[in-house]
Each structure stands twice: as structure tokens, then as C-alpha cells.
Amino acid sequence: MQKINKNVVLALLSLTSLVFLLFQLYYYKFYLSQKNGAIFSKIRGSQSGQDSTRWHVVRKFLGLIASHNIPVYLIDPLILGLVDKDIEQIRSSPDGPSPECKYFCAPRDFTTFALLDKTWKHEMGLFRTAEKMGFQWLKIINKDPRLDGMDDLSGVEIPLHYIFKLASHAIHLVVFYERSGNYLWHGPLRLKQHMDRKFVPFRRLHFGRYPGAYEKPELLLVSIDDLKVQIPKNPSNFLEEMSHSRFLECRYREARAFFQLYPDDASLDAVEFRKKAKSLLHLAALTLNNLGVKFWLSSGTCLGWYRQCSVIPHSKDVDLGVFIRDYKADIIPAFQKAGLPLKHKFGKVEDSLELSFQGDGDIKLDIFFFYEEDDHIWNGGTQAKSGKKFKYLFPKFTLCWTEFVELKVHVPCETLQYVEANYGPDWKVPVKTWDWKSSPSNVQYNGVWPVDEWDDVIQIY
Amino acid sequence: MDEWKPNPAIKPHKKRSWYLAWKYKLMNQRMLRKLCQTGAVLFLLVTVIVNIKLILDTRRAAYEEEEESAQDYDDELLNVEVPRHPVSNKKVLDVEVYSSRSKVYVAVDGTTVLEDEAREQGRGIHVIVLNQATGHVMAKRVFDTYSPHEDEAMVLFLNMVARGRILIFTIKDEGSFHLKDTAKNVLKSLGSQVAPFLSWRDMWTFVGKKGGELYGEKHAKSPALSTWGDPVLLKTEVHLTSVEDAECHWPDTELNRRRKRFCSKVEGYGSVCSCKDPTPIEFNPDPLKDNKVFDVPVAVIAGNRPNYLYRMLRSLLSAQGVNPQMITVFIDGYYEEPMDVVELFGLSGIQHTPISIKNARVSQHYKASLTATFNLFPDAKFAVVLEEDLDISVDFFSFLSQSIHLLEEDESLYCISAWNDQGYEHTAEDPSLLYRVETMPGLGWVLRKSLYKDELEPKWPTPEKLWDWDMWMRMPEQRKGRECIIPDISRSYHFGIVGLNMNGYFHEAYFKKHKFNTVPNVQLKNVESLRKDAYETEIHRLLGEAEVLDHSKNPCEDSFVPDTEGRVYVMFIRMEQEADFTTWTQLAKCLHIWDLDVRGNHKGLWRLFRKKNHFLVVGVPASPYSSNKPSSVTPIYMEPPAKEEGAVAVPAVAAAEQT
Hints:
By secondary structure, chain A is of the alpha+beta class. Chain A is built from twelve helices and 21 strands. In chain A, helix 9 (299-308) crosses helix 11 (415-423).
């Protein structure tokens, strides 16, 4: 009996093991297929069948929008990536028939197009036609950021994204809005509670995780895979822009609360300073952008943006940050040409570089150069009369776009950490007396410049 | 490990024989066999456990990923959508109406929809209109029928209300003194039995349905002239009808859907909600050829005067060359009805949380609206600013399209305005004529973006300064000597009678007789001569050809200007320095034009029409045009009335005395 029991146990265990093995295999296969993105293709046809489905959906969509005179352009990073490789050829033969379906058949879940809001208004008819053509569609609306500001306005929510789904492919239409500062903005994609979370795999969308800011693109009408479509004239530039397009809205609600606590300075001096700071910032942005030097709002200017969405009237200068790897020798002559003479230059490219330019009136433009280390970023300061060096440490940060005084500019995405590093936990409280050598909470004494270098590292004009 | 995994392909009986053979082989090695068996059991157990764990892990991982995806794209504000109105199948409404000397109230199903116990306010008949299907309040009015003509307004309103609506009436204080028979008959036709006999200081409440059915009526007679009737409280029930019965059956179009939404919410807009032949809500005026203002945003500044807004938007959308997509209505406050009006016309409306009080509130609303306008249309160079109490001329956009380039090119210009402060029925004549003036009239005007962004916005009066925005804009610190272009005949008409700085008397005196252009497609003449230097040449030409009037006559008299047509006349008044407007103010008063402050002047010169002749007034010696005065002419001086008497000015004609 004992033996038989043992054998039964053995057999049962073997059987369970077998069942598990089979189950495991099945499950793994299912999981894998989901990862590959085939989840949402119901028909498991041959590869070529799927390819042409994508092409057909895109063609249908282009037909749909053409019938309503809606100018869209292609911003799909996958396709633009492929197009970019052959850009010369595509440009030179805009009408040539293509031998094979090379771009629109490439495997992917979505094809992404962009739409300029102001070129289009009458949506009712579009959706009716879309439905007739077999598209399912989803519209994502949210509040209009252009109404955000120091005034408490509320308007109708605006469309930010559309998704048109047909068979196993979907078209993601991103709506771009023009904003003051001469740039285009698209909103984040946020699902409201009642929305179908399974409509498409939202996680795999290329646009919508964050809002984004872009330059107005120049467009080019091309024919690829026998479809006529508008694309950005320079796809690689667009793709580059896309990779760091994240946009931060100013925190107007917090700014309003700030001004409740600390009423704004409405004196003529303050108005005058703000006006000057704004035009100085515009001039600096123009100059640096022309040189292709990436910069961001730093120190007091950054604090002003973050805390009160405006220039702090008692700050008396405009502060910008630039990574030392972006330094160009042309910066000084370019500013001089723009009418901003060099006021002083501290440090050298290898260490603690800082430039100051004299703007109109007694307003000064400071450019601090930032040095990247493994676990932090720092910039340097120099005291002119003693040759003492100071170091200001910041946690690592990336750059985001924002809008400030009608200008599209960079700020550190991790603004709070940046501001807190610089101004300490009490950054919300305005301070009128500020000593750059001792007040910042991230300042470190960094030795003294050797006297024989002084002529080079301390230049005052 | 592998050899222990049974082969699934083997059939059961084969498996059995394979097992027997294996058993036989190991029979003699018991120890080894036992060891193997134990090992096998252990190994299998481990496999099972590991497998279970693996399955659980994968499942959790998959689940987490899904969770994460939802988090990324979820709206931060998980506003739980509570159904706004719980669907009730209730078919009966309880209505309570109270009427007394000092207080009235109306409660529908326990909710107070009207309560007025303010002293010295709200006298007369209060009327409430309810939707017969939903019981929602669609309109609330009070007609002070103690005062004349208010009963006419009430009749007009009651006639506009759609058949089938529920009407609730209640009197506060006194409502019969000027309630004429016409009005009483209308009330009678609504089912009231008491209305024809309403008299002095009676209290009265009445609930009925338009077009029949009386739900209840109560009345308390005043026992004597000096006392009021006893307060009355009417409690009654109203039976609701089905939604279908309460709606009109218009063809299902996008426009009619908007209309339906509007008409089920509000009352008092007349034929827009008629079931038969409702008045259109889309106008499709002729487009303008070469329209230079098609892309200029239009900001309509509004408060809570929805009937005004309705009238204003109708005229605006009927103007030739209008572009509805560029229109934004800015409502000062979270009022529903103005927003309903905006949506009726398919326009976009924005509500603004009010800041500050009185004039400062208006001023802050202007600032917020202008800022938002330039944010919404970042590449606009201009914005048209309108108010909710203006009629817009049919050629408003044509007028702007022809003149806007001046604002772009001529730095000495402050604005283009559609309003001529001195353009009354008897003082304006030529629709094609434009002026340059040193004052900013407002009331339909164009603002340059650079002026707003660089100059006005940064120093706009703060909320605690109780300033009028327009007065502030007229101050020399802001205007800096720049001028506005205005037409001789206004392209807007100010119809607002109720408002912050407005009342019936004031409107009658200063706005009612204003001339308003109704001619389409007026071709403006000599637009180029409005430029700074060209305008001076033009003025000198005009003064050169002008006939000097007889300065011995009284300028207030009609005979001062000869009975001619199409001539140019000039008169000279005394004006010691730039800010001396003594004589001008007296002249304006007797000409019945704007005299509350100085408007419409250009370097001490005023241009208007009298008896269809162009009439120029030059202030001597302050005006640079004084040199055109013949030496024989002595400028006219008019004394202001003596302050104590406040009597009408008697013009002292200096010239007459001297000769």
C-alpha cells in the first residue's frame, strides 16, 4: 500500500508539474505578445497584411481631413526617423511613385499628426464623416492654459488631442496652439474618469505624457508611399526638438497666493524696472538663440518666475545660466554688437566663469556658467577686491520650456530643488537685502585665485 | 532535472510499462531507489512552488504596469461627477408665494428662488417664470408699476413669454398706482380674477400658466389709503408636464440644438424661442472685400445684463465682415444667463472672478479681458474692444478695415474709436468723414497691442484704486499727446440705460439722440489726410475756405448759422490757455451736445455740423489756428452761470457790446 501511495504521489506531482509547465509556456507567450504591441490587433494576419492596414488607415485619414480642408502635418517620430534617412531623395522627387511601402507600413501602433488650432474650427462635420468611414474617435479636452494668468478666468475647455481608431491602427492627432512668445504648445493627454482607458494603449503614445513647446515649423509637402503629406522641412531638427520639448506652466495659482500675502510693488520704479528687465531678457534671448547657446533662467529671475510669475522688482538684474559645454567665444562680441557692453568677466572657461553685461539704465545681465560633475552641478563666483572664489552647488537638473514675459525660455524642470538649493526652504518669503557671498544656502568657499592670474580672471570694465 | 519531466506524448498505458521496467531495474537497489524517490518528490514540490511564485510575480508585474499607465494619463483632479440634478419623477411642484409691504418671497419645492426684503428697493410687481417641465427658474423680473410706463414693460415681457410657462406674481409695497387697464387685462387673460380690481396698496399673489390654468391667487385689500393690505401667503401645487410638451419641434440642426438648450433655460428673449418661425441666430452678413480686420480679435466686455448682451451680439453678428471666430465675450462674474446668450450664438465666452468693487471692478475686468485677448490671439496686432450695451453699425468693420492701417503706421495715434462724443442727430452729417481728436471716446474702439503690452498693462490701476479705466486712459500720463480717430457719424450706439454710471435721465440727456450710421459699405473719404501732418494741411485748407460767421449774433440761436447746406463756417471763442474751456462748455450746453467734460477737440478746434453745414469752432488765442481769425473779429466769450442760481447761461456776446 505504502508503495502504491508513493507512486500515486509521484504521478500526481508529475502531472501538476506538467500542467504548470504548459500553463507557464502559454502565459509567457501571451505576455510576450502583449509586450510587442500586438494586443490591439485583433486579426492576427500575415505581417504584410498588417503593414498594409496601417497604410490604408493613414490613407483614409488623410482623405478624411482633406475632405474637410484641415491642414495637418506628420509628426510621427518613427516615420520621420525613417524619412530623415532618405530626406534628400524624397525632397528631390516629390512626386515619384514608390516601389514599396517603406514608411507608412513600418510596424507601430499609431501614426501621429499635428494640427494647428487656428487653421480649423468646424469640428461637428468631421466626426460625422469619420464615423461614416468607420473610424472610432476619442477627443481629449482640458482647460485653456492661455487663460491662466494672474487673473482668475475660466472659459470653455479646448480640444488637445484626438484619436481616430480604425481596425488595428490608430491616428493620434495632436492639436497645437499658438501662444504669446511666438511658439506652439500642445497639451498633456489626461483621461477623465469616464473615459475608456483601453481605447488605445495610451502609454505608447509619443505625445501627451507632458505638455510640449515647439518652434513654428516650416512645412514641406512630400509624397511618400504614394501618399501626399506635409512634414516638417527638417525632420531631424524636429526630432531633436521633440526629445526635449517638455513644457512647464507657470504656477499662477501659487503666484496669486503669494501676492495675497505680499502685495505687488506697483510703484513707478517697479513698473519701469520690469519693463527694462523684460526688454533686456528679450534681447539676451535673441542674442543667445542666434548663437545657438542654450540658456535658462537662473537665480533671482528663476525665483521670480517660480514664485510670482513675474520679474522681482527689487532684484536689480537679470540672471541666466548656461552649461560650460555650450560656451562660445562669440558670446561677448555678440552681446556687444547687440548694444550690451561687457561689464565684468570673472573666472575662466576651465573654472568659475561668469559674465556680466551692462543693459539700459542700471540694469545688468549676469550669465553664470555651470559645470557638471557626477552627482551635482555648480557655478562659481568671484569677489573682485579679494580674489576670493565661491562655489554654488545644485542638484542635477534637466531643462524644460516655459513662458515668461512673453518669451519661450528654459528653466530647470526640477525647479523647486533648484530654487531651494539657491534660496533655502524659505524662498517663499521675499528678502530685500541679499548678499551673494553669504545669503545663498548653497554657497561654499572655494579658495582664492592665485595673484598672478588676477588680470585674467578678474576683468572689470 | 530534465529527465524528471514526464513526456506528455506518452499514452497512459505506455507510461505504465515504462514505469514497470524502471521499477524492476531498481528493485534490488532499495536504498538508491528510496533516495531517488524522495529526491524526486522534493524536486517536484520545489518546481510547483517556484512555478506558482513565477505566475504570481508575472501577474503582479503586469498589473502594476497597467496601473502605472493609468496613473500617467489620469486627470489630476479626480472630480467625481455628481449628477447635477437628481432625476426625480416628481410631477408636482409645491409653490409658496408671499406678498407684503416690506418683503416678498417665492419658494419652489422648498427652495427660495426669490427673496426681497431690502428697504426702499424692489417696489412693484415681481414676476417669476418657471419651466413647466423642469420647474427651473427661467426669468426673474420686477416692474415698478407704482411708476409710469413700467406696466408697459411688463406687458411687453409677458407677451414674450412662451405659452405653457408657469408665471408667478407677487407685489411688494405698492404695484397698482400706474398699472393701467391694458396691463390689468393681460393679467386677467392669464387667469387672474383679482387683477382688474387691484388697487392702492393691495397685497396680491398669483400663480398661473400662460395660456390658461390658474393654480392659485390670493389678495388682501388695503383698508385705508394710509395703510397696506395684510400680508398674504399663497401655497399651491403646480403639475409639471413632460419635457416634450414644453419644447418646440424645430428641425434637428446644430443651430436648433443651441436654440433648444437656450430656450429651455431662459425666458424673455422674444421670438428667438418661438415655435413657429423663430428669429434666426445665424446672420451670415455679406463678407467684406479686402477685409483688413478679419483676423483682429474682438473682445466684448460684459457684466450681468444678458438682455443687453443679446441685443449687442445680434447687431455685432449682423455687421458686414464680422468673423465670429475672433469674438470672445468676457463676463465679469460667474453669471449663467449671459453665458447662455453667448452659447446661443455659438461664440466663446470666458468668465472672470470679480476683483474689487465698483469702478475698480470694471477696470480690473477690462485688464483681465485685454490680457486674455492678446494671449488667445498672440499674433494679433490689434484688438477691437466692445461693451455689452452697444449697438454695432452695419459698416463697423468696413469703417475699421479702411482706417486700421493708420493706427499701425502713425505713431501719433492712440486709438480708433467708433464713437463721436459730439455726434448727435443735429450735429453729425457725413458718414464718410473722419476726425482726429485729443480725447479717447471708447464705446467701440481699437487698441494697439504694443500700446497695451508696453505701456498700459504694466501700470494699469491696481484693484485698490477706485478709478475708471477710461478716465485713467484719458490722463495725459497715458495718452502722451496722442490722438484718436473717430467718425463724424458714430458706428456704435450706446443703448444701456442701467449701468454703473448710467441712469434713465442721464441716458435721455446725453445718449438717446446720438446719431448712428445705418448705411452699409460707406466709402470713407480722405483717409490718408488723417495722418498727423496731412491733417494739419487739411485743417488749414478748411479754415481757409471757411466763412466767418457773424460774431455779433448769439451762437446759441439757430439763426447764428445761415440756412444753407454744405457750406463751411467758422466761429472763434475765447480760450485763454490750453485748459481754458469756459466758453466751450457753455456753448456745448446750449448746443445740447456733450458738456460734462471736454471732448472731441483737436488743438483748440472742434468740428461738427449745424444745419447740414460744417461748423468749426476755434479757441482763441490758445489754438494754433487762431491766426486764421480776421483781426476784426473778437472771439465770443460766454460766462458760466452763477453758481448759486444755477440758472441757464445768458451768453454775454462781447463782440456785440463792443460794436
